[in-house]
């Protein structure tokens, strides 16, 4: 249904690694000392992540998004300090040994199959783990009627709320990652921006704000009648003033005006948008993943639009209001990766607001920082 790409305005961080062969079972290790949580059957979006070309200051990525049902049946999940553990029930009247298990653990995926009487049955297929693992350090063994799998995290500081990246797991961990930083939805469609913002606000527990509704309430007229009476420039300036008033607002998701009348379309109106995380929702004409990646690259390099300043771009092959939640999930997934690639980014956003949103993003000048209130030094955001 849609494809997604995003860039981070920081020094390049390589997120690719060689994929080793399927893990082999060593002797059974000691079990993780943490409680398990029963996971019921569910559906989740499928992502495939591939690197795009990089520049000196920006790293760009692209992935496709589609939704399909996966049979996860009966398993338990536990999060440890540096690893996560999965326990899968092996439903069989006869004993199952290591030779009957085929386990393929990769950096972001996990597939487990059981072979009985010459037939292979997939018992777990996760096409998007919650975060990256170290495949070569995967350990698994059979414990009576359970398969126990230990996966080594790449980021030991990140708490996994679930084994799979889903809407529920993303919204659960958002408080840890975003730290209250507001989110702005920008792009060509006002409706799209508003609906996706509403879904994000519901999932995150943030305040939903639509600049179209604010402007129409303040002016006591519709945007169309306002433009007819005073021109699009008047609407653009008014929304820019709204951005300024919202720049110090925390825990808000803002759906902005789309099209040329929207202030986000103008590169010179981004001074206060940099205070939050920005997501560009863009329709795509690409027929395949390779074309989508090239289109995303051109969007940032050649568009000349203010949208190219966004932290994240979601490329959509068409739009339907019923798809707002999957698009919101794609945006949240990209924001998660963005923040994990630069863990000082939220502190940097906070510092930018503290200095008055002067437009010097991302190369913030510390001159003029007032520390007299609490005597604290600015965070190290280099």
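Q: What amino acid sequence fits the structure above?
A:
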């Amino acid at each position: 249904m849609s494809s997604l790409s995003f860039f981070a305005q920081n020094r390049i961080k390589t997120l690719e690694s060689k994929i080793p062969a399927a893990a082999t079972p060593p002797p059974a290790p000691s079990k993780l000392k943490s409680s398990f949580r029963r996971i019921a059957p569910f559906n989740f979006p499928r992502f495939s992540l591939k690197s795009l070309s990089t520049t000196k200051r920006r790293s760009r990525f692209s992935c496709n998004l589609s939704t399909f049902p996966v049979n996860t049946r009966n398993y338990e999940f536990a999060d440890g300090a540096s690893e996560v553990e999965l326990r899968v029930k092996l439903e069989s009247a006869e004993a199952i040994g290591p030779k009957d298990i085929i386990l393929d653990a990769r950096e972001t995926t996990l597939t487990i199959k059981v072979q009985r009487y010459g037939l292979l049955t997939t018992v777990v297929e996760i096409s998007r783990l919650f975060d990256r693992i170290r495949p070569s350090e995967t350990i698994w063994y059979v414990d009576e009627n359970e398969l126990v799998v230990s996966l080594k995290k790449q980021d030991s500081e990140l708490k996994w709320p679930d084994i799979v990246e889903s809407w529920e797991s993303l919204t659960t961990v958002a408080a840890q990652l975003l730290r209250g930083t507001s989110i702005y939805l920008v792009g060509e469609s006002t409706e799209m921006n508003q609906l996706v913002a509403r879904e994000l606000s519901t999932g995150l527990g943030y305040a939903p704000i639509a600049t179209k509704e604010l402007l129409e309430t303040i002016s006591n007229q519709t945007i169309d009648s306002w433009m007819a009476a005073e021109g699009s420039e008047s609407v653009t300036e008014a929304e820019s003033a709204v951005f300024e008033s919202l720049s110090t607002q925390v825990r808000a998701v803002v759906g902005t005006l789309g099209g040329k009348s929207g202030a986000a379309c103008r590169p010179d109106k981004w001074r206060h948008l940099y205070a939050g995380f920005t997501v560009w929702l863009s329709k795509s004409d690409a027929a395949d993943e390779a074309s989508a990646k090239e289109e995303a690259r051109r969007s940032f390099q050649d568009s000349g639009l203010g949208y190219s300043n966004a932290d994240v771009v979601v490329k959509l092959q068409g739009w339907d209001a019923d798809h707002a939640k999957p698009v919101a999930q794609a945006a949240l997934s990209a924001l998660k990766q963005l923040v994990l690639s630069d863990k000082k980014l939220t502190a940097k956003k906070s510092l930018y607001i503290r200095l008055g949103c002067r437009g010097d993003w991302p190369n913030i000048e510390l001159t003029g920082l007032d520390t007299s209130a609490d005597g604290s030094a600015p965070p190290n955001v280099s």
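Q: And what stands out in the fold?
A: The longest strand covers residues 42-54.
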